[in-house]
Give the backbone structure.
Amino acid sequence: MSATVVEQLDSLRAHLAAFELPDLCSVNVVTASGEPGVSAQLAAHHPPQIATGLLAWADTLTDLTIEAWRVPSGDSVHLSVIGRLPEGVTVRVYGGLAFTQRGIGADLAPEGSATVPLAVLRHLAIPGEVTL
């Protein structure tokens, strides 16, 4: 049985209280059997800040996956860290980057996604190292 909205939010609240994590600007809870259980957008707007924030979250989650997803309009790419909170709730934390022909996700069609190595976030966290 999946967690209720209140249980998912309680799990996220407890996680935020237990770890020093970057600010979020939005949180969405999925109540159906869809994935993920909780989706949260970082308040960061610049590539190194987004990558650093995602790395901070990656250090606190289990069953980790890093994903790049190009939005349907094609003008940006969302980088996400997907993992589980200690209570088993799945969380997706993401930040959006402007799409460029040479940047992360350049090979993705609109609405396309791909798993990427954690090293991509480490590289992106270095100011001035936006492209791979």
Summary: The chain has one domain: 5-124. The beta strands are 24-29, 38-42, 62-70, 76-84, 90-98, 113-115. The radius of gyration is 14 Å. The domain at 5-124 is CATH 3.30.460 (Beta Polymerase; domain 2).
